[in-house]
Amino acid sequence: MQRFTDLLLQYHDKFEQLGWFGAFAYSFGIVLLQIIGIPLSPAAIGAGGIFGFWKGFVAITLGTNTGAAVNFLIARHLARRTVHRWLGHHEKFRLIDTAVGREGWKIIALLRLCPIPFGFANYAYGLTSIAFWPYLFATFIAIIPANCFFVWLGVSAHQGLAAATGAQHAKHPGEYVFLAVGLVAAFLALRHITKLARAAVAKAETPAEPSGLN
Predict the structure, then answer these.
(1) How many C-beta neighbours within 10 Å does residue 85 have?
(2) Do residues 71 and 126 touch, judged by C-beta distance below 8 A?
(3) Can you list the alpha helix ranges (DSSP code H) found in the chain?
(4) CA-derived radius of gyration, the chain
(5) Domain extents for the chain?
(6) Fewer CB within 10 Å, N- or C-terminus of the chain?
(7) What percent of the chain has pLDDT over 90?
């Protein structure tokens, strides 16, 4: 555990010396993770731990949006047949495709709030009928809450490790209480938003009933 803690603090110091160049390099790494489909939550937490809140938020937001654009364009133009062989036979994809066709960017935004693997979802959205810019706009807006939460989690973890190892002065107990309450509140809010998004997506995926008029 001590070695792990020392490693985290060491990476924090190295990236801190690089300034914004380090943040942009981290964003590039996030793009690569999305291309191969690796979950991004640990990377978002790491961004907060390494860069702090604002720089970490910029790094993860730039990386996730750029990766979302790259995956979408790969599926739309470069490897459409291959991606369709992976995903086209899934019933869930057909339902999502129908919902996106009916509701457009709003469904993309809601789906971003659901626990769907980010990288693979980007490929799937490239096969739908949505245009590129509405897709990217919906992605940018909808991933802000989750990015804020995970980056904040990383910041809190780093501060706790730094205080535990003596690399940073321990905070007043009241600050830890405030931080813990804030994290719990953010988690509950994100969970509630996710439930609402799931319900809205399920409703949009339901086939429209005939009007009864001939």
Answers:
(1) 10
(2) yes
(3) 2-18, 20-35, 41-51, 53-73, 80-87, 91-103, 105-112, 118-126, 132-142, 144-165, 173-205
(4) 20
(5) 2-205
(6) C
(7) 19
